[in-house]
Amino acid sequence: MALFKRDLPPIDPNIEAVTVVKETGHQREEWFALLDEQQAMIWKNREIIAWLKKRTKLSDWWAESIGLAYIEARGLAKTSQQPTGRFTFTMKRDFDVELSRLFTVLNDVQSWAVFDRPRVLTAKGGRLSLAFDDKTRANILFVVKDGGVITLQVQHELIPTEAGIKPRDLYWREVLNGVQRRLEV
Description:
This protein is of the alpha+beta class and 185 residues long.
């Protein structure tokens, strides 16, 4: 699970290279080479991050970020699997509609054309956070592109098994298809 300490952003394995060098003193590839020397490619995700926390001077946040980047770069785990062993599903879809209208339709979860409706945790700052009865959650990010098109990114997290990804994929396709139908009316 990502560390959410004060003033630290969520863990991101794709942080700009300049920032990695500035904050850790080494390029990402140098960290990867160090892990390769330790034969970390045969370790579990948790072991890689634990080794970085214990054996380097990296903060916990940077150890987790470098560890996730290594795991992703070396193809050691499915990109949807987190160090906790849980899975995250991500879907993107573009909408050519006003941001306020799209936000309003998505925020109205009771109107969704699906059976399992989540609770809205937060709805602000261009983001919607949702909680489901199965203890998973989803974050929806609204990104306005040039020309006014809005890219909607849904990230459903804390999925206990890999087999749970496909039902979430189908679920979100149905939700977003329903949103599209509502917007066309």
